[in-house]
C-alpha cells in the first residue's frame, strides 16, 4: 500500500514538473517582446564637418546618454567588457547557471560576501526595469526579464542596448556619452587603454567614477590586471604596457564644449522636431574660431569709435554649406543682447542689393559693364532719390556707378526694368516676409526692405553659382553621418536629406549649372561679379587708404538709413562672406558706415583665409556667351576711327546694347577764324577731332563740373543744306508716343506739357512745330512748354542746323 502511494505521488510530481516545464516553455515562446532602448530619452550631439564636438545636450532626465550603434563601438571595448563582466555571453541564454549557482551558494548558503553573477543580459534587464536585485524576488524577476530579452533580441542587439544604458559615473550613461565627456572623442576612436578603463566602470560606477581622485588608483590597478588577462589572447598589444602605467587623465561634464552657440540654436529652431542622436553639421570649427577671433579683436579695437557688436556669416557657395556663423561678438554679453542671432535678424540691407539691379539690367539688355549711365537729379512722381554725398557725377560707367554705390543710377535702372524686377528676384531668391511690391516702390533699390544676413548671403552665392539660386546646407546631406536611436522614416530630417541629397552634385562652382531655380543668366551673373571686382579693398587703420590684393574679391558695402546698419558682403575664393556692424536695438551711430565699419573686418577675415591658402579664384567665363572687345573709354561703345583711348570690356553678343561710337568726329576748322568749315581745303582748313555729346549729357557733364570741348559753330557762308545732312538729328524724349496724356476740362488752360529733345553738340537752338505749325523756339538744353489741346497731333523738332525728328502726342479730356 505504501509503495503504491509513493509511486502515485511520484507520478503526480512528475506531471507537475512536466506541466511546469511546459508552462515555462510556452511562457518563453509567447512572452511579449520588451522594449529595451526606447524607455529613456537620449542626448543630442552636434559635430562640425570634421567630427569635432560642438555641443552635447542633456537628455530630458538630465543625464548624458548618447545613442551609439554597435558598429560605432570599438571591438576592443566590447571584448574587454565581456572579458571583465561576462566571458560566456555568446554561450548562455541570458543566464549563466553555473555562475548563478555559485553565487547563490556563496551569498545565501555559505553567507559570505554577496556575489551577483549577473550576465550582460541580466544587467541590461536591471538597467531597463530598475528592479532591486539584492533580494531574491528582485533576482528572480531579473532572471525572467533576461530570458525575455534573450528570447526576442540577438546578442548584437543586447550588447548595443547595454553599451547605451550602462552607467559610467555621475550622470553619464552609455559608452557614447562617456567617451565624449571623458576623452573628448567619439566612441569609435577610443584606444585600448581608454577602452579597458571604461569597461571597468559599470560594475561600480560610484566608486569607480574616473573624475574622483580616490577612484583613480583603484582604476589604474584594476585596469592593469585586466590588461594582463587581455594579453593572454592579444599578445600583439604588449606595446600598450607603458601606456597602462600612465596616470588616468579624464575630463568632466564641466569641460564639455559650447561652441558655435548661435549656429546650434539656429539649427534647433530650423528643425524643432529633430530627434535625439549624433549629427554632423556644416560648421568648420577652425573657420568658426577664425571668425570669432577676428570679430572679438576688431570690436575691442574699434570700441572707441562706437562699435560694440558685429555678426558674420561664411558660406561655401560650391557646397552651400554654412561653415561659420557668428550671431554676435559675445554670446554671453547681456549688454549687447549677445544671444540674439544677428545672421537671422531682419535688417535694412542698404546698398547691398544694388548688384542684383545691375545683373537684371544686363540680362534685359539695358547695359553692359562699361555702358554710360546718368548720375543726375531725377524725379519719379513724388520720389526724388539722392546720393549719399548729396551730389551728382554726371555720366559715368555702370561699373563706376555700382562700385561708387551711386543711388540715382541704380534707381533709374530699376525703373527701366520691364521683364523681371528686383522685387521678383528677391521673392524667387528666398527673401521672406516681404510686403506687397507697391509698398516699397523704387526705394527698394536703396534698401527700403529688410533681409536677413543669411538671405543676403544666399543671393550673393547665386551670383557665384552663375545665376542659380540654392538653399544653404546646415546639416550633412549624408545620412550615414547621422546617428539616431529612432526610426527615421518620413521624419523632418529625412525630408531634409532627400531635398538636399542632389543639391550640389556635379557642381564645383566654376561652371554654369542647370536652369533649375535660375534667377540670372550665367553671363549676367558673371559680369555683375566682374563689376564688383573693381571695388578696392579698405584697410582698418586708414579708411581712405585703398589696397589691392593679388586675389580677386567681389564685394559690396551697404549703409542703412540713419546709420543703423553697416554691411560688407562679397565673394572670395569658394566663400561668400557677410559682415554686419550695428546695434540689435536698432539705434544708429555715425560710425555705422559699410565701408569704414564693416569693410575693414570683412577684409581682415578674407586676408586671414588667404593666409591659410583658402582663397583661390576659380570663376571663369569659359563656356559663357561673353566676348572681350576693345571699348571706347569715354563712351562705352565700340571705338570708331577717332576714339583717342580704348580699354578692354566684356559684353554679351546679341544682348548687350553696344554700337560703334559716334561721339568722336573729325571736322574741318577754318584756320583763320577757328570756326567750322563746310568743306575741306588744305590751304585754309585743318582737320580736328571733337566730342559730339548729346545735349542732355553735356548738361550733366557741366553740372558735374566736367568740361567738354564744344565744336565751334559753322561759318556763316555754310549752306544749311550741307550742315543739315551732317551729325545727328534731335531725339524727342518728351512727349512720348506711347502715352496718352489726360487733362481735366477745368484745368485745360492751366496745364502745360514739356517738349524736350536731346541734340548733337553742334546744335544751339531748337524749333518746335505742332502739325507743321511753328509754336516756339528754345535753347537746345531747355524745355518748351506747350499748352495742350484735345486730339492727336504731330510734334516736330528741328535744330538750327536743319536736322529734325518727329513724334505723335495724344491728349484726352476728362471732366
Characterise the protein shown here.
In the C-terminal section; belongs to the transpeptidase family. In the N-terminal section; belongs to the glycosyltransferase 51 family. It holds the Pfam family BiPBP_C. Residues 311-565 form the Penicillin-binding protein transpeptidase domain. The chain crosses the membrane at residues 12-31. The protein has 815 residues and is an alpha+beta fold. It has 7 domains: 1-30; 31-255, Biosynthetic peptidoglycan transglycosylase-like (Penicillin binding protein transpeptidase fold), CATH 1.10.3810.10; 261-344 and 471-624, Beta-Lactamase, CATH 3.30.450; 350-449, Beta-lactamase (3-Layer(aba) Sandwich); 626-657, no CATH class; 664-723, no CATH class; 731-814, Immunoglobulin-like, CATH 2.60.40. It has 23 helices and 28 strands.
